[in-house]
Amino acid sequence: MKEKEGKEKDLEKQFAELKGWVENLSKVAPENKLVLICFSGDLDKALAAFIIATGAAAMGMDVVMFFTFWGTPLLRDKKKTAGGKDLMGKMFGFMLPKGVNALKLSKMNMGGMGTAMMKALMKKKNVASLEDMLALAAEMEVRIFICEMSMDLMGFKREEMIAYPNLTYCGVAKMLEEAQSSKVQFFI
Amino acid sequence: MSADIKVDKIMDLKGMPCPMPVVKVSKGIKEVAIGQVIEAHTTDPGALADFPAWARTSGNEILKTDQTGDVIKFYIKRKV
């Protein structure tokens, strides 16, 4: 009898231990989430990023796109302007693409001819344009983060960025918090 | 139409390249009730790998795949 009680106690202890482990594991288990770091301002790479993002959203994943450095000007609104910039800010503003339609191919741009040909080809083959992909991402509740440091460095103002439903200005820590709890991370 | 499967919604996704077939079907499946079936038509050869992958990760079921010429038909049952 005593032996049986002892065994039960032992089992209870093991069960409690196991429960603790499972609780801890579930706390650190990655979520069904994708974090994309969109560093590139090239048309081809941005297209890849948006295809992956919308595809992941279709698979039921929570998706975060973190736009930094050359990726930042993609999210400028071509119709908006911002004043109060210094000389460097004005220069960056002038030289960098204003929105997704102004991007160029990373290869075979050939003074814009290659990019124009690729865009025509995309249309012919029914491949969604970056503008469409951005709208689709918004519809699929893809979250977009913009690197505050890149904004500051390139002299971009918030009032010249696109109106996107799920837009957050943040730094590396916020992106890393999302990346830590995600199953998949890509740097593009 | 397949004789043995009752289809509740047909989606024409012909001519759409990646990622649109999967994007559209993920939206379309929410428009039928759980247990109902979608018949999706696509001409994207990548869909042969993509649709089963999408179904596995989203928790839905592909009942049947039919290929006639360039057109691939998927019969997908909404499970979640």
Would you kindly provide a written description of the structure presented here, covering whatever features stand out?
- The complex is a heterodimer of chains A (188) and B (80).
- Chain A has 188 residues and is α/β, with parallel strands linked by helices.
- Chain A is 48% helix and 15% strand.
- Chain A contains 7 helices and 5 strands; from the N terminus they run H-E-H-E-H-H-H-E-H-E-H-E.
- The longest helix of chain A is centred in the N-terminal third of the chain and has 27 residues, at 2-28.
- Chain B has a single domain (9-77), classed as TusA-like domain (Translation Initiation Factor IF3, 2-Layer Sandwich).
- By secondary structure, chain B is an alpha+beta fold.
Shape of chain A: elongated
For the termini of chain A, the CA-CA separation is 66 Å
Largest interface: A-B, 14 and 16 residues
Low-confidence stretches of chain A: none
Total DSSP helices of chain A: 7
CATH third-level topology of chain A: Hypothetical Protein Ychn, Chain: A
Q: Give the uncertain stretches of chain B in residue-range form.
A: none
* Quaternary status: heterodimer
Helix- and strand-based class of chain A? alpha/beta
C-alpha termini separation of chain B:
23 Å
Q: Helix share of residues of chain A? A: 40-55%
* The first-level CATH class name of chain A: Alpha Beta
List the domain count of chain B as a whole number: 1
CATH class of chain B: Alpha Beta
